[in-house]
Amino acid sequence: MARRLDFFFFIGSTYSYLSVSRAAGTAQARGVDLVWRPFSVRTLMREQNNSPFVGKPFKMRYMWRDLERRAKRLGIAFDGAPPYPIDPEELANRVATLAALEDWCPEFTQAAYKAWFLGKQDPGRPAVVRSILDELGQDVDRCLAAANADAVRDAYAAQTDRARELGIFGSPTFAHGTEIFWGDDRLEDALAWVDDAGDS
Fold this sequence. Notes:
Layout: E1 4-9, H1 16-29, E2 33-38, H2 41-47, H3 57-74, H4 91-102, H5 105-118, H6 126-135, H7 140-147, H8 150-166, E3 173-176, E4 179-182, H9 187-199
Parallel strand pairs: 1-2
Antiparallel strand pairs: 1-3, 3-4
């Protein structure tokens, strides 16, 4: 099997901030190709009746503190809790899907998380998406039209279907073949699995 790791993520997942910030560099250092796959974890959570934090204040407080600790240990900027939840229409995720189809997904997703976690803006708001796309030098109107068109919506749904088939239930999740690793703290385990698969 190729030295490839699929990175299933949802812009709106808090812990995905850590992976979006570090997974590409960590995978590259190990000689592994990271394939960015935006999907609707929100859809899967609704199907599974699995709401992680909303309406759970103790768990929510722990999550933000845990993120702060991990970010500090990993050298990732963290400036307090950003707005949450975000992207109710999943626009940012559809733009990420377009970007994945066109090979600029890492740049867009990292910029979206920077706007969210450091700029305290909802990257799913049209004005914020427009600003991100403009900063990346993309044709803003073209990208938004494409993100709202059937082809990108279908591609986003197909990635969600693939995640469902793999048994994915959260974001971030890393997959190598049918092996899945949930959570930023499983990134190194996932990369080690790729190493072991290459040796077998």
